[in-house]
Amino acid sequence: MDAAWSLMSTVERFIDEESLLEAGDGVVVAVSGGPDSVALLHLLFALSERHRWRLSVAHVNHGFRGREADEEAEFVRELAASLRLPFYLKVLDMPGYLAGTKANAQAAARALRYAFLREAAHEAGAGRIALAHHADDQAETVLMRLLRGTGPSGLAGIPLRRSETEDLELVRPLLRIYKAELIRYCEQRGLTFRTDSSNLETKYFRNQIRLEVLPYLSRYQDRLPESLNRLAILAAEEDDLLTQQTRALFEQFVNAENGSVAWSAQWFGGVHVALQRRLIKLILSYLALDPDSVDYHQIEQLRNAVLQTKAGSVRMDVDSRLTFRREYDRVMIHRMVLPPPPYAYHVSEGQTELFIPETGARMVFRWLEPDDPMPSVLGVREAVFDVMDMSFPLSVRSRQTGDRMSPLGLNGSKKVKDMFIDAKVPPYLRERTPVVTDAEGRILWLPGVRRSAQALVREDGRRKLHIEWQCDFN
User: Which of 246, 294, 318, 359 could disulfide-pair with 278, CB 3.0 to 4.6 Å?
Assistant: First the structure.
C-alpha cells in the first residue's frame, strides 16, 4: 500500500470514527489552492462515490495580492471544473474594506470568508463545510495561545467541528494529518497547487510562529508539533467534560430570563473555583457578550465580587451593555436597564385590571361580595382589603421620597425606604415595586413586601377587595 493510499484510508477512518460526514451529505469544500485544500478536495472526491457525498467547491479572493490572487481563483475554478463540481467564488476588496474600519485585517478577512462559506452552503443545499486545517495549524494555534496567556479551554486549539447554524456544521477532516503528509500526497498523485506568497511574510503572528518560533523550540524538542497536538486533544476532551458540568450547574441553579441572569452567592461559594470561572464565562456568553473578549482579570473581578461578604451590596459595569449587582445573597448580571419613569394610575371601584407599562407588571382586582369565599392561602404578591374602610379612587404609583406607611403589626409608621431595606428587597426591584394608596393618600400595601394596618378584613360579612400583583421579575 503506497503512502497516498494509506493517507486516504486514514482520513476515511477518521471521518467515520468522529462522524464528521454522513452518507449522502452535501459538502462545500473550502479550497484556497494551496496543497492542504487541494489534497482535501482530492481525498473527499476520491471517497465521494462510495459515501454518496455531494461536493461543491468554494473559493474566496480577498483582493490582497493582486494578480497572484486572481490566478489562484482561476486555478481553483479550473480544478472544480476538471472534477465536474459546482464552483462558488467570492471576490472581496479587503484593502478598501479595511480602509474604512479599524478592524484587524486577518480577523475581518476570516469573518467575511466564513460568511461567504455559509452562503455557499445554503445555495448548494449542503449541511457541512469542510476546511483544510491540519495538525501543523493546530500546533501553531496552541503555541500562539500559550504565548498570549490562554486558559485551559484555549489549549484545545482549533475545534474538530463547530456548529454554524442548526443545520450547518464546519468540519476539519485533516486536523490529525501533518502538512508534510499532504504535500507528499499531492506529489504522489501528481496534483498541482499554488503557494501563497503572504505565508512567508513575518509581519503576521502566525507566520512568526511557523517560521521562527517553532523551528527554534524544536531544537529542544524535535517532536514539538506532535506534543502540542497531544496537548490539544487532551485539553479538548477535558474541556468538554467541564463544559458539560458547567452547563448542568447553569440549568439547575441559575435563573435566566428577560436579559438577566441571577443566582445565589452562598451557593456559588460552594462551587469549585474552576467551575466558578466557567460559570461566569457561560453567563456572559448567554447575555451575548463574546466570551473571547472576556479576559482572566475581568472574570476574577466578577468572581471576587460574588464572594465578597463584607459589603451588603455591590454594583459594577461589566461593559457598556451589562451591569453586575450583588444584593445580599442575590447575584445578578443584566443588560443595561434604565429605572422606570415615575408613574401614577387611578383605580376606580369595580375596576378589574391595571397594566403598568413602565414596569411591564399588571394589577388584578377581584371584588368579593359578602357571600364569596375568601382565598384560603395568599401569596406574597396578594392582599385582601375591606372595601368599606377604603376611599376611592385608589392610586397605584411609583414610590416617592418621604413615603411612610403604618405596617400591620407595628405601632406607628415607618419609612418605605427602610421597609425595603429590612425586607432585603434588591434596589433594582424597589424601583419596580408599586405603592398602593387610597384617595386619602394612605399607603395600603407594598406588593411583595408588606401590607398596612389599614382596611383590615373583618368578620362581619362586608365587601372585600382581593389584589394581585403580577410581574415577571423577581
Answer: 246
